Amino acid sequence: MKLAEVSAERCPSDPLVGSMGSEFENEISKQLGHIEMGQMHTRMKLATLAALAAVAALFAPVSVLAQDAAAPIVEQMGAEQVVAPNAGVVESAADAASAYTPMAPTRGKGMPTDPLSDEPNAMMKSLTFQDQYTDNGNYALGMHDYILLPVITIISLFVLGLLLYVIVRFNRGANPEASRTTHNTMIEVVWTIVPVIILVVIAVPSITLLARQYETPPAEAVTIKATGYQWYWGYTYPDHGEIEIVSNMLPEDEAVRRGEPGQLAVDNRMVVPAGVPLRIQTTASDVIHAFAVPSLWFKMDAVPGRLNEKLLTIKEPGVYYGQCSELCGSRHAYMPIAVEALPPEQFAAWVKAQGGTMPGEEAAPAAPAAEEAPAAEQVALLTTR
Ligand SMILES: [Cu+2]
């Protein structure tokens, strides 16, 4: 079934959804009108918001915990279940005929950690970012761990210390006669220069990271297009004979039975080759969605009528889970993403199992000669394309 048909079938003009949509739109336009009328007011608010954001940054690790808690998972998964291969995933005859079997996820890799699970360091792991499996992810995580977090901690403790000192030393009892000092050039120079130095120290790696994330995919990158639908994902492989994958969330009990995290597991994963540059393109068919996989440091909006594109190179094979990260309707929370990165030769086997072709192969796989092409040759084709 083609994606467009599936989309039409799965998105009937439900009166409930329709009315919810227009209510939402009304609310939005009301809000927009409000902003236009009170722009001055808004600017003042922005200054307050900026201050609040600085405070909120201090509590960033707590929000990561909340994100982890949103996917109730590992607690129901016995260790042996996680290691067990996904029996029962191979369903179609085409799959059975090939060497491809869906990869079992590794516990704690590419998925959030439950703080109460028996995993080593579960509490600490649940408080910070997931382990990263891309170069950009490692760079960003290093910046967070070794620059941002220390700067935030030192500044917070310093300001807290100053406040406590003022409270104790300069309260009315201890200091009945207040000083009339109004200016101190030395202090003013210091409290201007020091923050500038701190901002420059943060800006250098920050801008570097931004530039790295905008790197254009090389010409030989493997193109995979992710399309957001209300409420599931579709993946197409233009380089591989137009393979189309429709990816829906598995029910919780089925996910646990297969040894996968609940509310993150899907029936058909986005299968990609590992260690090879990928050109991930995102778009959407109805509303704005966002394709996001935390352990790959990848997040990109999927906008109807637009094609966004970003380079992704996954360092090692594995199953990496993510979620739609743009509020897209009532089932926004139920359109997870599962990326399965395979060694290139296994990816070639998967392509064949889907009835696709590797780049450079004949379009019709009916010719028996095409099936005899050794895996190594397919890998070469994959990497040289
Ligand atoms: Cu969505």
Automatic annotation (TrEMBL):
Domain named Cytochrome oxidase subunit II transmembrane region profile: which ranges? 121-217
Q: Entry cofactor note text?
A: Binds a copper A center.
Name its co-factor(s): Cu cation
CC annotations in GO: plasma membrane
Give the EC number(s) under which this enzyme is classified: 7.1.1.9
Tell me, in a sentence or two, what this protein's role is.
Subunits I and II form the functional core of the enzyme complex. Electrons originating in cytochrome c are transferred via heme a and Cu(A) to the binuclear center formed by heme a3 and Cu(B).
Identification of the protein by name: Cytochrome c oxidase subunit 2
